[in-house]
Amino acid sequence: MDILSFPLICPDWNADEEMLLLEGIEMYGMGNWAEVAEHVGTKTKEVCIEHYRNAYLNSPCFPLPDMTHVVGKNRKELLAMAKGHLEDKKGELPVKEESPFSPSRVKIEDSYKNGPLGRLPSASNTGTTDIKNASNMVQVKDQPDSLKLDDHLSGRSFGSKKPKSADDEGPSLLEFSGYNTKRQEFDPEYDNDAEQLLADMEFKETDTQEERELKLRVLHIYSKRLDERKRRKDFILERNLLHPSPFEEELSREEKDLCRRYDVFMRFHSKEEHEELLKTVVSEHRILKRIRELKEARAAGCRSSGEADRYLEQKRKREAEDSGHRKESSQAGPSSQESLNVPVSSDSLNTYSNTTSVGHANSSSLTDLDFVPLSGADLLSESEKQLCREIRLPAPHYLRMMEFMTIQMMSGNINQKSDAYSFFQIEPTKIDRVYDMLLKKGMVQQ
């Protein structure tokens, strides 16, 4: 077995290490210096980068290293040179003197504990083991040029995990969309089955001219599908659709749903034009909603904006309370459910009705109920409270009937008592009493 533990290109690198360096680059590629250094075994990643740059890339005999200083010398002379170089290092390091091959910024560590003449085995790609001299030292050079070269040659890192960015914390649109930021690809891609069209296709020498033209046509179609895939991906990345829009973060759920309906027009506008369109649509929606609320408040008897705001605020509170009551009743069980929405069922209000068991449970649960203390009773006058007691009508139902009948009267859909019977599923006598109350309060003209 040949012993290659002698310096060849520079005093700090033996011939076997040079072979392992070149083998590692051939096996793992130029940028994977961590694997290359592990393959060498006695050198760090930075030392491997520095040596390859100085001895090979900057060599006057590029791409070969400069061998002029070792030409004509035999193994013994090279070993003597290595021994002399090692003795020079040992003599110079204690007094902190710099040598041509050992600058002060280089830290040399002896990785062998068996004395200066020990041996270290190293494996090659063929499975053989070479014996190395104790002059193999592990050098760690803290030079920014080496790190810059490493970053330039390789965008990947091995043996350590990169810290997660702020975008990786918690679920986001990136995770839901399946987009891989490092690969810049979606999983699955748009038109993900495009490759299946030509997966089994191959050009043969025996193909006829028609078959060849047909296959070329298939390739042309596939290219068009790839272009469409790239166009869509570029559109998503350029418009930043993988991240929530700052404009839509302050919108309500209803307004966000409205904006989603206009996404189909995004391809016809620039980013600024589409954002301006959404702002206009949301502004229009808010104005129309405000107009509807003011009309409703005016129909309820409000004559100023302050009264309208108070009425709308009380209405929202009633709706929130009604929603809470419905949720509680649904959790309590079907026997205790009661509907607070118009149209109102007569079975739920008639105390003495004999219907199904569920209807009977509903009616029996309302037998001893005082209708006035329910939510909304504070908005009624004494005469209205007395009316609700007499006809056994809950205050929220009464307010909703008043509101609904007032709007229908203003619209001309109710001109007499009988016209209102079709809108409610309760006794006509109760509807007549509510209609008379509306006339008595002067909210509508007969």
Automatic annotation (TrEMBL):
Residues 13-56 form the Myb-like domain. The keyword Zinc applies. Residues 90-99, 142-154, 306-329 have a biased composition (Basic and acidic residues). It comes from the Eukaryota. One of its GO terms (cellular component) is nucleus. GO terms for molecular function: chromatin binding; transcription coactivator activity; zinc ion binding. Residues 122-138, 330-362 have a biased composition (Polar residues). InterPro entries: Ada2/TADA2, Homeodomain-like_sf, Myb_dom, SANT/Myb, SANT_dom, SWIRM, TADA2A_B-like_dom, WH-like_DNA-bd_sf. This is Transcriptional adapter.
